[in-house]
Design goal:
This protein is mostly beta strands and about 160 residues long. It contains two helices and six strands; from the N terminus they run ββββαββα. InterPro entries: NA-bd_OB-fold, Primosome_PriB/ssb, ssDNA-bd.
Amino acid sequence: MNETMVCAVGNVATQPVYRELAAGPSARFRLAVTARYWDREKNTWADGHTNFFTVWANRQLATNVAASLNVGEPVIVRGRLKVRTEVREGQQGWASADIDAVAIGHDITRGTSFFRRSAKPEPAVTAASPPRPEPDWETPAEDSTADTEQSEPATAAV
């Protein structure tokens, strides 16, 4: 409930790695986010510090990431920020920032993109669940006199 949601705009720094896991598809890639600022002395834009995030995508998003993203492409990533600290080689203080992605898309302020809807997977039919017949959506034809007799309002004697 009190998760830190972020929106990061940057470039794909590593080729996405796709894995089929027991819990479903998963993909990860590194995202490079470089701050830009206006340098008044040089009267031009300059690059600032670059932050790197590991972006994690799951289920259908993972499948679409693997099929859509390549190194160097500009993307916008929205998701939950996870900061981890670990002890490595006896040194504490090693930290990494991960983003559990909810949505990822190309940044079309820097180029064009072509959207293609992914095909929905067909549900698996097993021996335990036989295929269900298609319902009959047609309404049966009824006697036309029965309809008129029931539809006319009854008048009460006053």
